[in-house]
Amino acid sequence: MAVIIVALLTGGLAGGELYARSRADSILVAVAKCVVQDGATISFGVNPPFLWQHITGHYTNISVETAGDRVQDADGMTADVTLADVRLQETDDSKGTIGSLEATLTWKSAGIKDTVAANLPGVGSLITGARTDPAAGTIILEAGDNSVTAKPVVADGDLNLQVLDVNGPLPKDTVQSALNDLTKKLNDNYPLGIHADSVEVTATGVVGKFSSQNASIPKEDADPCFARL
After folding, report:
1. For the segment 15-31, what is each residue's pLDDT rounded down to a tens digit?
2. How many Cα neighbours within 13 Å face the side chain of 184?
């Protein structure tokens, strides 16, 4: 009889663990999809057992990986995010807190080209390609025989594109102003106090490291994406 009771309890806990994971996964996938405007997969830390994390609302580790089609307005970008010490304890102005968040955003050259083309008024349609020069740490935007060479830089927590050279009829200041408007739009849309820490130019694009500490999880009136939490 004791063996049967133990087996039933064990089976019940296992079933509860699976249900809790499935429920939390569906909710967080919906939140992530809304925030990044792309598909996403979620995984959870296993210590302590997930059922206990779910009951207490204290999640030790959550990992999020997006599909790579886009992150908000940035085409061709993938986000790989790790959240630690997530506490879903609602207050008057938040749904909880995130102890730390670390994100790696990988932006492919083709995605940079498409994003710049879609967001530069007037001249965006002239952009025909984008390539990188890892040794120089630069991106070269091509428009027929013309080109713009820009260097990704981090300043005051923002990822910006510093124009180094313009080969063509447009003034350098005009190009810089247009790229400033684009990067401001991207930086301002990141939630949870996320800021840029570093950036690297690779053979295939740009990789940025981002983070946030002790972030408040907004309520739905501040950000509808978090309504399901």
Report:
1. 556 666 778 888 889 99
2. 7
